[in-house]
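Fold it.
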Amino acid sequence: MTPLINLAAEPKSAEVTDWAARLGWVAGLLIFIGFVYWLMRQGWKWRGTLQSGLPELPAVPDTLGEAKLELSGRYHGSTTAGQWLDRIVAHGLGTRSRVELTLTDQGLAVVRPGANDFFIPAEALREARLDKGIAGKVLTEGGLLIVTWAHGETLIDSGFRSDHAAEHAAWVEAVNSMNSTNHASTTEGTAR
């Protein structure tokens, strides 16, 4: 019985917090996080500099004509065609945003509140498909509408997600039928 009494009788004081060491660790962690953020920002700017040879994006024309399809949703970014992780950041193409798409006989109008709007002429459209991912965004299979288009000498994949994913199939069909119509008329024109 004496050992238990001895244990209970020993004075034990509460540990004192070393505030200087704790604040030093917190400050060090905040500096590290700030440094990592700065490196990421420098990488984004460097990628934009590497892609500076990309021509300016065409502006949305004042008159588009009759809309074949319209879509509201999200723009998730653009990559080099066929390379879903090679993000393009030049001219604001890397900025995610809300989007309003309008497909007409003239092409595809991409209106992005808070970001640069642009226009993809009908002759620049190459194809549309359903996919599961683009740089920085991965969804379920077929959850993303990818539109491939030519800009200058670069083929670009742009990723969109409609607020109503059931609309994606109609967009794929419409863009691909426009593309086959454009290629047929181009082939006829060169054959004459």
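The chain has two domains: 14-50, 69-191.
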